[in-house]
Specification:
- This protein is an alpha/beta fold.
- It has seven helices and 16 strands.
- It has helices at about 10-25, 40-50, 65-80, 95, 110-130, 170-175, 220-230, and strands spanning about 1-5, 30-40, 55-60, 85-90, 100-105, 135, 140-145, 145-155, 155-160, 165-170, 185, 190-195, 195-200, 205-210, 215, 240.
- The strands form four sheets. Strands 2-1-3-4-5 form a five-stranded parallel β-sheet, sandwiched between helices.
- The radius of gyration is 20 Å and the shape is elongated.
């Protein structure tokens, strides 16, 4: 699911933008939600620092353009991968906006047609580009950073994230070439995202993730998996391996 956040100091505009986006979600059967909206930049930064955000609609003219751009610069320090879409009534800010890696720039008043065009271009980009999203089906994308492990369950794969499970009919052999390198086979039924591992209990062959969810290491995959962890580990979050 795409987590979309809205920030504008005009509450009437915020509510109108939310209404139009939800109509477009329904029209195009998009798996997306407005996870947070605010007119306060400090609350925005706090939310981005503590929650997954995939897309941000940000008013560049929050009181004045310098505030909007400085907020965008702070956002990029926290989250470099979110897709930033600026909204503003001032077209002359466009060149400055793109300095902070902007996906699009919408000039107010924003028509539904223009918003629809941007939203569909974004979902098409997520569908075709090699970025931080994993395609579950034609309308559902999940941020790879949110996935803890993938479980094989019969004909289905279950993508377990910190908040939800996402199911699709597929197999490990079909998806293995499209997964980022941090996704490592650890069991006949599990692929683990090693960037989200908090610790490993080697004596029980159990992998624990940041929200206390867990999967397991199979004997066939243990040596290779532990070699990745110990030698080629790309995780920034691995706290400890308990060998007792």
């Amino acid at each position: 699911m795409l987590n979309i956040v809205l920030c504008d100091d005009n509450l009437s505009f915020l509510n109108g933008l939310e209404d139009i986006l939800y109509r477009l979600f329904v029209k195009h059967n998009l798996d997306a939600c407005i996870s947070f909206k605010t007119d306060c930049t400090s609350k925005l930064l706090e939310h981005i620092e503590n929650n997954p955000v995939d897309v941000l609609f940000l008013d560049i003219n929050l009181k004045n353009r310098n505030v909007g751009l400085s907020v965008a610069e702070e956002i990029r320090k926290i989250n470099k991968s979110l897709h930033l879409i600026f909204t503003t009534g001032h077209f002359e800010f466009v060149m400055e906006a793109y300095k902070v890696n902007t996906f699009d720039y919408l000039v107010k008043p924003i028509s539904q047609d223009k918003l629809e065009e941007t939203l569909l271009r974004l979902t098409n980009y997520l569908d075709t580009s090699n970025n931080h999203f994993i395609k579950i089906n034609s309308t559902t994308f999940i941020n790879q950073d949110d996935v803890h492990y993938i479980k094989k369950d019969g004909m289905k794969l279950i993508f377990h994230t910190k908040d939800n499970d996402f199911e699709t009919y597929s197999s490990f052999s079909k998806i293995k070439t499209s997964l980022p390198r941090d996704f490592v086979r650890c069991h006949k039924s599990f692929i683990a995202n090693i960037s989200n591992i908090s610790h490993i209990e080697s004596n029980t062959n159990t992998i624990f993730f940041n929200n206390s969810s867990k999967c397991y290491i199979g004997p066939k995959y243990k040596n290779e998996f532990m070699e990745v962890i110990n030698v080629g580990n790309s995780s920034n979050n691995l706290d400890s391996i308990n060998y007792t």
